[in-house]
Structures are given as structure tokens and as C-alpha cells.
Amino acid sequence: MSTTATEGTTARKWLLSYPTLMLGVFFVGPFGIMLAVSFFQRVESAFYKPAFVFSNYARLFSSLFLDNLAFSLYLGMLVAVISVSVAFPFTYLLSRMRMRTQTIWLVFLLSVLSLSEVIIAFSWSILLSRTAGVSNLLVWLGLMDHPVGLAPGFTAEVLGYCYLTLPYTVLMLYPSMSRLDPELTEAARTLGASPQRAFFNVVIPAMRQPIVASLILVFVFTLGVYLIPQILGNPEHWTLSVLITDQAVYQSNVPFAAALAVFLLLTSLALILLTFVLGARERIHTAS
Amino acid sequence: MTRTVRNLYFAAVAVFLASPIVVVLGVSLNAKKRLFFPPDGVSLRWYADMLTDAAWRGPIENSLIIATVAGLVATSIALPLAYVLWRHRLLYAKILYGLGIAPFMLPPVITAVGFMVFWAALGHYGQFENVVIAHGIFLVTLPLMTISLGLEALDREMLEAARTMGADEKTTFLTVVLPLVRPYIISGYAFTFVLSMNEYIIAYMVAGFTVETLPIKIFNALRYGYSPVMAAVAVMFVMIAILVFGLIGRFGNLPRLLGRWEPMDR
Amino acid sequence: MNADSHDALTLQGVSRHFGDVAAVSEVDLTVPRGKLVCFLGPSGCGKTTLLRLIAGLDMPTGGRIEFAGRDVTALPAHKRNLGMVFQSLALFPHLSVAENIAYSLRIRGQDKAAQRQRAEELLDLVRLPGVGDRHVSQLSGGQRQRVAIARALALEPELFLLDEPLSALDAKLREEMQVELKLLQQRVGVTTILVTHDQREAMTMADMVVVMRDGEVQQIGTPLEVYRDPANAFVAEFIGTSNLLQGEVVDDTSVRVDGHVLQAARLPAGAAAGTAVTVSVRPEDVHLYAGDEDGPNRLSGTVAFVRDVGQSVELYVDCGGTRITSHVQPRDKPDVHQGQTVTVELPPEACVVLKR
Question: Domain coordinates of chain B in residue numbers?
């Protein structure tokens, strides 16, 4: 026992030292400093000075923040519901297609998902523009009288968000959907259910937990969107991420930005942990 | 659902996802500078501009270097961590794994503010390497997950077979584990590369005023109105993503990488 | 010291505890050079754990392991000079057949030509010539089996260990491979330990069988000894099939079962009258007659079912509260039918009396 044990332990320590160093310095470091700065005092014409004040957190109750928060929550929930409603049947059908077809779709979805927000926002702003947008096509087809511009505007912003979240939602639902036993729906079919009924009576109840989890995670994902509201929305449609960046970079109020980031961090972590708890509970249910 | 309904549904999703790309492609090939529909004349001049204009070449080079090195940083952290966790299931390694997964699941603006105050506190704000390290840490999740998936797919009896044939841990790692997880390492690296190329807010907040990456350049240019070069850059991004993920899909097992469960695994 | 004077493998009081559970407890075993030993038992009996302890893939919590007189108890697997075939075969999918076989030579830095030559020799040995450049995935199940065996023998190991190596094969191929593997082992002369839960496999291949249950050795002996003279009811039932009758000792030569007194050739030493015992009678030793014929060691009963599978006939007879099974050759099949009254005879020399 002894020789292999010591040999293994030294190797392990040695192997883990580099990840520990990197994550310790560059992950724990920034988050720790950010937490500290959120209690610092802002200094005009400079950055900030060390202190221990709660004034930055007190500003979480200002209307500047609360209005912004309310809009961010509303937008996030709206987009999450749209994305999951569209992505759920899509993923169900996708996971039952030929492997080759699935791979091609996955390549496409990943490509869209990886696109920079700035590119997505830019593309949608052209697509919805008056001069080169989709409305010209409708005019050309005789469906509209004259082209209209939709960007910037709330509709454009929601469309941009959904474009970003739809591939994300599909990829989130994909693992659990592909694990769903095809025999489950086949059993329902042999009992006389139509494919639609089997989908509503068997697939949706069986996928309840992944649906709730993806609603939450898509919502968290929307909290991170930063450029789309600025390019496709009007200032009253700006979100928490925009507010944080604005405070940090343009208003030079780093302590307030840090407090906002800590608030966002705690909210997101709580929501993510909630999905894990839901997942664990579901596993216990299925196991018993 | 009948076949027709299914095909219509898939076509609608495909149109929704493809239309901005198609429009941008159209704009990028438009011979005139003015954005207009339908395009008048086809030309590749905006692509030539993108590659020759120093204002665009600098950001392209920056982004390529950052993505290349950030991918190396992320993969180099992920490989030993994923390996030790798989091999020994240590609690400590699990905690580190959690740290590696965490930043990616959170809104990136949090990591951005964190790194901004971090580099400011060190008096190192605005440097090129800030972006590299921040991307490497933020995206470490991707190689960590792909490599872990690859390791989980290995038959542990293969390691034991290597040991009974006289291989110590290091030899086993080099001759058995590494060759077999290499596709997953490459996939993880490729994911990191593509996402680093596209990342905006972290790059902007740790060095945005001094180091112009491609997404930052596009956004900056956008403030002064449209330019067809932007469309050319956007098309290039789409091409890189399709190329990278297409290669993974062609030579790797993309459905499995994305969590599809296969009965033969068990 | 002359290595030849030692047995190939010696285990002294080897144990492996996982917390409070003893997966292997206090095993003593000596394996002579060149023999093939089978560890036999139901799943969870500790046979695979014991094999892994011998391989050095797991470390014992107590006891001592010697290879040819050398203490290897603390030696890790990669320093033990073993060849092992795993249940999953564990062939390396990124290497060709020849590269798989030559793996142990490659990691010892032998040159390419020597590796290649040895791989070809071994492929000839396992009767699979010319497939060296193929990919493992291009081989059939039986061929992979042979490659795994060849790979384990590449360095002429001191001990050849096999962990249920044939379990993935279908029944017919398994039977063939058992004979082939045994012939190969005899030809190479390597000391071999085979783990199996298949008693037929053990009977076919083993020079010596180690029957295990709940981490403890139940009996060690040649296949015939274990079959003919099981040490206890568990062994009797696990090796082949057996009629197990509960009863008690009457005197030195007889036992009482279900009201009948049976003469038995051998009783456990020192069993006093009244001791509870189990009588084991192999089905092929049970004689069966039509009609009700009284006599010593005879019971009368009713035929419950006749299973005629062609190569043998199995008759199930209900005698009062006990069911007795009789196996006969087709040509000896008595003219009986379901529901008929018959007599079964349990010859005294076939009645093995076991302490409970």
C-alpha cells in the first residue's frame, strides 16, 4: 500500500499545484478584490479609497437601480419563456433524428451561439433596418406599402435576445432530451395515444425538471447580455449588465459597480444552485 | 406531429437563425458602400479592405493571438485538474473543478468587473496579457468539461492493463490516457478559441481602451455608422465558427460532447 | 536461492477489508509452477478482489503474497512481471493489433523490429497470423480475445491472470475458447490463475479449483475432487447440480431423511447421532424404476415432470416433501410419464453426507 500511496500523493500534489495557483490567483483574487471594493468609498476624480461602508449597497434601493432591475427581470423572464417554448419541441424532434442530421444542426447551433453579441446585434440591426432590412423584401413582395425600421426598439431587442438564447436553450435541453427513453413515447403510442398526445402527456411531464432548470438558466444567461440592449434597444431598455459597465467605466464609480456585480453574482449563484437542488430532488424521486 | 409540420418547424427555426447571417453576407458582398436592399453589384472589395486596412488588421491580429494563447492557458489548467479528479476523486480537486466551472455559468460582466478591479489593484490595468489570462480563466470551463467527458469515456481497465504490463502512472498517462483524450483536449481548445475570439465585455473592461480586439473594434466602428467591412468581419467570424465546429462534428463525436447519452457507454 | 524449489505463488492469510466488510478474508493458497488454478464462485464472492490483490492492482489489508518465494506484498502492479487479461479485454483502441501486443516491450524501450517480431510470434501462438496491422475494432470478439491473451503473454510473465476473460463471448465460442486456452496454457507452461463464475469452465480448464463464497475459501482441490467430494452443501450445490436432502445422523453408516433411513458410504468424522446434516446426491447417480419397489435406500414418489432435451433426460420426482432430480442418458430413459408412481434409488456410495 505504502509505496503506491506516496507515489500517487506526490504526483497528485504536483499536478494540482498549477491549476491551484492559476485559479487561486486569477479567480479567487479578482472575486475577492471585487468583494472588498464593493465596501470601498468612491472618490471623485480618482478611483476609490479603502473603507468599510455600506453606501454602495444602500444604492441598490435607488430608483435608478430598481427600475433597471425590474426591466432586466421582465426582459429575462419574457425571453426565457419564449426560448424554452420554441426550443423544447425543437430539441425533442432533433434528438430523435438521424445522428448525421443531429451533428449538422449542432454545428449550426454552436456556430450561432458562439457569435459575438456585437455581430448578432449588428446583423439584426441591418435585418430590421429601413434601408436594407426584411421589410424591403415584404415591400418587394407587395405585402407592405413602404419599408419600416424596427431597430432600435423593444421588439428588436427581444428578437436579438431570443437569437442569442435559442441555441443556448436547445443545447441545454439536448442532454436530458436525448436520454429520454424512446420506449416511453412508444409505450404511450401502443396504448393508443396520438404522437401529439404522447408528447403532451408523456414527454412534457417527464421533462418537467429540465424545463424548469433551463428556464432558470436561460434567465441567468440573459442577465449577462450586454451589447444587444445598447445596439438594438433604446436607453430605457438597457439592462443590469449595461448599468454595471456604465458605472464602472463611464461614471468611474467602481465601488458601486462592484456592489452591483456582487448582487448579480449572489442572485445568479442562488438561481444556479436552485437548479442543482431541483435536479438532485428529481434524481431521488426517480431512484425511489 | 406529422412529418410536414416537423419540417416546417425546423425550416422556420433555420430561417430565424440564418437570416441575419444571410443579410450580413449580402451586405458584405455589396459593391456600393451604402447599405441597401436589394444589393447593387457583387464585389469582394470589403474583404480586401478588412485584410489590408491597418485599422482592421491590428484587431484581427490581437484577437487571433489572444484566442490562441487563452486557449492554451485554459487547456493547461483543465488537463491536470480533470485528470486528477478522474483518477483520484479528491474532494480538493472537486472544489477546484467547481471554481473552474463557476465563472462561465455566471453573467460575464461579473468576471469583467472582478478582473478590472484586480488588474487596477495590481497597477497593471490595460495590458494585453490581462485579456489573455481573463479569457483563459473565464473559459477554462470548456476544456474542463470536454476533457472530463473524454476521461469518463475511458475504460479504467485499460489503465490497469497498462500497469500490469509494467507502465507506471506517468507512462500510462503518456501512452494510453493522453492519446485517447486528445480529441477532447482539441475540442476544448477549439471551443475556447472561438468563444475568446467573440468575447466582448471582459476584454473591454480589462484593457478596452488600449487593446482593441475584433468585437471591440466592430462596436467602436458601429458608433460612427455602418461600414460594409464590419459585415465582412462578421462573415469571417461565422466562417471560423462553422469551420471549427464542423471539423469537430466531422472528426469527433459532437452529440456526445454536448451530452448525448449513448447506450454503449454503459 | 534456487527459484525452482519454490511454488509459483503463495498466499498467507491474505485479507482485504473495505471498512467493516471483508471482501477477502484470511486466504491461504499455494499454486505449484505451471498449473492452472480457477477461482470459482458466485458474483461478489471475492474472487476478482483476490485476483486483483495478486496482480497488485489492489493492496491487501492483511497477509503476505509471494511470487516464487519473493515477498511482493507491497510491490505495485507495474513492478510484478505479470500478464493479465481483463473482463473488458482492455485493448487499446488507439493502437494496432501488433502495437497492442508489443506494448510492454515498447514501454521498456525495445526497438521497433524486436517489437514487431515478438508480436508476430505471439500472433502465431494464438493462431491469428497476419492481423498485426489491423485495428482492434476490425476484429471479431473471439479474435480480440486472442489478441488480449497474446498481449498478456508478450513478456513471458511469471504469472498469467485472467479475470472472466470469456464472459463476453457467446456460449458456443466460449466452449471452444476454453479448450483452446487450456491447450495454449499447457504449451506455454505459464502458471495461470483464472477467475470465473462458470463451473463448467472451471471443470474444463483447471488443474486446481478454489471455490469461494463471501470472501472465504470453501474448498481447494482438483475439479473431480470438488465435484465428487464437496466440502459442504454450498460447494455441492454450486458445482454442478445436486439433490440436497436435509436429515440427521442415525449411526456410523446411516442417516434419516424425511422418515427414511438411508445408508451412506461416508459420514463426516465424529458426527454423533442426531447431528443435523445435508445429504448430497448427484442427479446422474440417482436410479429410477417404474412401479413401487421397496428396498434399501429406495423412496417412492410421483413423476412431476420429464424434461427431455435430446442429449439427456431429466426427471423430477416428488417423494413426500422432497423433490429428487434424476439425470439419465436417452438410451437409458425409463418408460415413465408425468403423474406415474415410481421408485428412486440413492446408492449408498453416491450419498455424500455434509455437516450443516
Answer: 57-265
Query: Would the ipTM clear 0.85, i.e. be above it?
Result: no
What's the rounded Cα separation, in Å, for the pair B146 and A248? 34
Low-confidence residues in chain A, pLDDT < 50: 1-5, 287-288
Q: What is d(CA C262, CA B60) in angstroms, rounded to the nearest whole number?
A: 97
Considering the domain architecture, whether residues C257 and C336 belong to the same structural domain is answered as yes
Averaged pLDDT score across all residues of chain C: 89
What is the chain A residue with the closest CA to B89? Answer: A12
Domain around C121: 3-233
Which of B155, B163, B168 is the closest to C88 by Cβ? B155
pLDDT digits (tens, 9 = 90+) for B199-257: 988 999 888 788 889 999 888 888 777 778 888 888 888 888 899 888 888 887 788 88
Query: Which residues from B are below 8 Å from A22, CB to CB?
Result: 73, 77, 136-137
Helix (H) / strand (E) element for C127: namely none
Q: Is A108 on the interface with B (CB under 8 A)?
A: yes
Using beta carbons and an 8 Å cutoff, which residues of C are at the interface with A? 59, 74-76
Interface of B with A in 145-164 (CB under 8 A): none
CATH number of the domain residue C57 falls in: 3.40.50.300
Give B61 to chain A, closest Cα distance, Å: 17
Grid cell digits, residue B246: 464542423
Residue B229 CB coordination number (10 Å): 23
Report the number of distinct structural domains present in chain C: 2
Are C82 and C64 part of one and the same domain? yes
For A46-82, give one letter per residue: b (16+ CB within 10 A) or e: ebbeeeeeeebbebbeeeebeebbebbbebbeebbeb
Domain that holds residue A213: 59-287
Instruction: Provide the angle, in degrees to the nearest 10, between the axes of the packed helices B178-198 and A99-114.
Output: 40
Query: Residue A154 and residue A75: Cα distance in Å, rounded?
Result: 10
Q: Does A171 touch chain B (CB under 8 A)?
A: yes
Q: Give the global pTM.
A: 0.84
B57-265: CATH superfamily: MetI-like (1.10.3720.10)
Q: How far apart (Å, rounded) are the C-alpha atoms in residues A91 and A85? A: 11
Predicted pLDDT at A45: 63
Here the CATH number for the domain that contains residue A129 is 1.10.3720.10
Whether residues C88 and C187 share a domain: the answer is yes
Q: Which of residues 52-71 of B touch A (CB under 8 A)?
A: none
Quick check: B23 and A22 CB within 8 A?
Answer: no
Within this chain, do residues C249 and C154 fall inside the same structural domain, yes or no?
no
Is the CB of residue C38 less than 8 Å away from at least one CB of chain B? no
CATH code for position C317:
2.40.50.100
